[in-house]
Write a structure and sequence with these properties.
4-stranded mixed sheet; binds zinc ion; globular; alpha/beta; single chain
């Protein structure tokens, strides 16, 4: 698949899935497209399984808003916090997409480490502050 084809497919993928509850979501949408383009050829099937992506305001607690989860058996939703630092976005997004690619349906330190390892394997630096097992309670 050419780079142009990947860009077009990712743009189409995003167009049907991203919802904003904030006007500050554009940097996140751009970072999301960037990360998805890097992993699209290998993981488009898993990404297409995500039913909705909400770019939400800080009204959502960061610990919750960083996590993808399943509601029922088929609906995968990803919520991304708009208050993250722009430089952290690619790593944060790659970590969250890694959970989905890995088929995680719950949290826990082992799954967090797996998601970070996969995201870093894709070449993204996952910020420490988005690795919940390193957060103080
Ligand atoms: Zn995680």
């Amino acid at each position: 698949m050419s780079d142009e084809d990947v860009k077009a497919e990712v743009e189409y993928w995003l167009s049907g899935r991203v919802y904003y509850t904030t006007t500050r979501g554009d940097p996140i949408a751009r970072a999301l497209a960037h990360v998805a383009e890097q992993i699209w050829s290998e993981h488009c099937e898993a990404l297409e399984g995500i039913r909705a992506i909400f770019i939400a305001d800080a009204a959502y607690p960061a610990k919750i808003s960083c996590r993808p989860w399943e509601a029922g058996k088929t609906l995968k939703v990803l919520i991304l916090p708009c208050d993250a630092d722009e430089s952290d976005l690619p790593g944060l997004i790659a970590h969250e997409l890694a959970h989905i690619v890995l088929g995680h349906d719950a949290g826990g330190p082992e799954r967090e480490k797996e998601a970070t390892a996969l995201a870093e394997g894709w070449g993204f630096k996952v910020p420490d502050c988005y690795s919940p097992w390193r957060l103080p309670d």
